[in-house]
Amino acid sequence: MNSEPRFALAADPRVVTDLVIAPADIRTAALDCLAAVVEGELRGEELAGALAGFRAVALDPRWRLVYRLRPAPAGGPYAREVFVAAVRPRARFDVYTAVASRLGLNQQPLSALAHAARARSPQMTAAPILRLAPVPTAPTPPRGDTR
Question: I need a labelling partner for 89 at 20 to 30 A (CA). Which of 28, 98, 113, 125 fits?
Fold first, then answer.
């Protein structure tokens, strides 16, 4: 892992807070992971939907590092840079919602299954609403003296 970096490194300022809050073993794994990504030795899993273009690396079963490659600022020694968006727990999709909110991305359903659950079935057609006739009632007894 001691090769020459292939990419520059940039991060959202809130990533520093993410790293400070993270447990020590996660912080160490994140920094090792970043070194490997910057050197071009590691590529994370591609994300889809609103986070298309981003990649996620599992630091352990519960924590993820999310980044993307983007063009580096002009005049620098690198053509592209690794932009780190978040280092957070995966539970309840925390890391992915954090990235979307930090970058102002429009959040879409998280999966095709969620989209299908929210969609209207194509088999549904506009059927006329059936109006039921009022239910006949029994005749009411005459009011009067019942002695």
Answer: 113
